[in-house]
């Protein structure tokens, strides 16, 4: 759990910093880190290296005003750790909140994250929360 707490602390410090210097991430992320985001989220793809992870965090921060982890549990050794939690996100664009189960496979090397593969419970719900409905749909809903 200590290795996860360190990783989350570094992520929070990075997000709170004004410079968003990827060097901050080096305290918990391996220089050859790769994060495999699924194709069904707006920040899809393989994000490689400290600069790639920094870019991913920028994009996620631009997408969500809130990104909280609740009820975190983990199992397995750092070589292949399984993490689960409830993930709560609030869309910056719509203000819609999404709360759902979330899991990740994490690999650490020498105490640093080298690979992460996240699994979102319902990416359709996430995408819907990020989309602003067409004006006609909003007007029709308000008329009811």
UniProtKB/TrEMBL annotation:
It comes from the Bacteria. SUPFAM superfamilies: NTF2-like (SSF54427). Pfam families: SnoaL_2 (PF12680). InterPro entries: NTF2-like_dom_sf, SnoaL-like. This is Nuclear transport factor 2 family protein. It comes from Rhizobium phaseoli.
């Amino acid at each position: 759990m200590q290795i996860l707490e360190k990783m989350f602390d570094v992520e929070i410090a990075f997000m709170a910093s004004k410079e968003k210097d990827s060097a901050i991430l080096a305290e918990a992320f391996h220089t050859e880190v790769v994060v495999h985001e699924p194709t069904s989220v707006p920040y899809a793809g393989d994000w490689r290296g400290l600069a790639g992870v920094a870019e991913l965090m920028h994009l996620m921060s631009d997408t969500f005003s809130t990104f909280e982890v609740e009820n975190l549990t983990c199992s397995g050794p750092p070589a292949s750790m399984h993490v689960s939690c409830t993930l709560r996100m609030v869309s910056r664009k719509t203000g819609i909140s999404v709360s759902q189960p979330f899991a990740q496979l994490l690999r650490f090397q020498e105490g640093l994250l080298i690979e992460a593969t996240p699994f979102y419970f319902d990416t359709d719900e996430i995408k819907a929360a990020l989309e602003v409905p067409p004006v006609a749909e909003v007007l029709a809903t308000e008329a009811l």
